[in-house]
Fold this protein.
Amino acid sequence: MASAVRSAGSSTKLIAGWYTNGVVPNAVSGQVHALQTKDEAATLKNVDSLRRYAFNASNRQFLSTKNVAVLAKRFAHTDVRFPNYDNYRYEATKDPHQPARATEDARRGVTSAVVYGVGGMVTLLAARNVVQTLVYYKAMAADQRALAAIEIDMNKVPEGQTKTFEWRGKPVFVKHRTAAEVKRERSVNISELRHPEADEDRVQKDEWSVVIGVCTHLGCVPIANAGDFGGYYCPCHGSHYDGSGRIRKGPAPLNLHVPAYTFKGDVIVMALINDLNVDQLKVPLGFIKIPQLILAIIAFSARSGFQFSATYTCKDNSTHAITHGGFDMADSDYSDHFTTCAGVPIGLITYDHSTAARFFGFISIVSILFVIIMLFLYLFRWGAYAGDERLPKLDTAITMILGVCWFLAAWSWWHATDVLTNETSPETIGKAFETKKFCDFPDVKDCHLKTYHDTGPLTVSVLAGFACLILFASNIWFAYKETAWFRERNSPSQPQQGP
């Protein structure tokens, strides 16, 4: 039985009982075993060398002719040349005797910079709108600032009429609707609307409708109490809105925006930063932010709850103690604290999980800041959020990015905590003390080694991280439903009419 193997222009026959490269026959008929070869890793560029290393990896055990034939068949009719990627490696990683943790900064520098840079930019973009609003308000003149917060006397708007007021440099239509108008708007089939919104969701009191008087097409100011639907009409390009401010005909893509306002007796109050409005916490978009904030705080704080200590006694009756708490526990960082009875510093923890911990903590902080900013918009500036198409889109995009980051952070942190738990267990520490000869007693038991490790907080942080993953992944859908992308996809197409 023979099989031919082609390798870079050469051919090697593999026959039971024949002499082949790296293989000699055994005295027992039908069996062969592998010789020890001294090939370097650089010689693994052809099938012959690869075959010899495959035999050597079998722990020098005898192989049957069947196994040899199977191995020969595995490489039959295959021209294999292993590529050399040395030109693409960092200089710091080319030394095979240097441990991986020593070159971690060089290997992960670009990745860390990208992750932290993108996360920082996302946080800054989310905070920009709030900061710009506050700065804009402080920079306004006194007369302009007065118009940023207005009070509208409801008694000055007769039933069946619409009055126009100025707020933050924009016209505001306040419509006092009759019972017939309310009934008419409530009878509209929402599925037929281009921008589906129920009348009940656009008003706080049935008889009062408050909208921003800016057409959503090109920003013109519509005419009140006009149009085919008894609401508002934009003569620029023929957009018709009903009495609730919903687009019914024409090129405008969206309904008139509803600002944030509150009722105080017979007064409609419209302020730059409104009073707390908890209505948004009653819907999934706002409610889900509460557990997100709580779990992100738990994930960040519990991450640093790890504790480890070990004590041992030497022949001179001196007692040594190793204590540590926190997450940034690397062998290279704490080698000075882990000394033998002879005073020689030796590393005890061989796995550096600080990178996973830093990434997990960074995502937690970014999530906390993002959730706080969005809660501020939901509770105090919902009108600005709903009236600006960019904010819901930005909310959706950031939520999606954080969902992906939570997946990576939770998975890597779970792996790191699992390894750290195993490496700091009493059994592993006992073996490390014996192997690395921390004690000067022949028997490690005479050192009276006592260890303690508390990894409960790490488990809590991992569970909180996966819970954040689920919450942020679910939040993507709730935020997406507030965007123009969702409305355009689910609204029926209507013919546009020009002037």
